[in-house]
Amino acid sequence: xxxxxxxxxxxxxxxxxxxxxxxxxxxxxMSERDALALLEVSGALALLVDSQGSILKAxxxxxxxxxxxxxxLLRSSILDIVSSEHRERLAELLQGCERDGCHKxxxxxxxxxxxxxxxxxxxxxxxxxxxxxxxxLMYGSDVTRxxxxxxxxxxxxxRDP
Length: 161
Fold this sequence. Notes:
The protein is α+β, with helices and mostly antiparallel strands. The chain is built from 7 helices and 5 strands, in the order αααββαααβββα. The protein has a 5-stranded antiparallel beta sheet with strand order 2-1-5-4-3.
């Protein structure tokens, strides 16, 4: 029996999503603490910011990734810790994401604390805070090595063989 035959036989039966993560009952039962624990384990940047860039919540992993104390991040704006050439574009993305309500993606260089700068692919998504006011979820993956290798390959391609 091929997979197509199997699918055709079961096509009239309703899908059982009760054990799936897509189930709204499972999502309701997930606490904020559980969600934050998952974000901590990811090793990625995970922030809650307002449309002006003020950081409302930050994971400890985010602080370690950016080489800033978490307490410092919570008193800062995201625009203060990105490199100067990306500030204006990131500010436009923050405001546009809140205005349009759609997801945004951007590769940005953060001016890190002790270890220098880092490149992150960030994704922005509209969210509602606990009091119902609009805010943005910011999730980012470290792509510093990728960007450095890409730049190295570009530089090598211009050298005379």
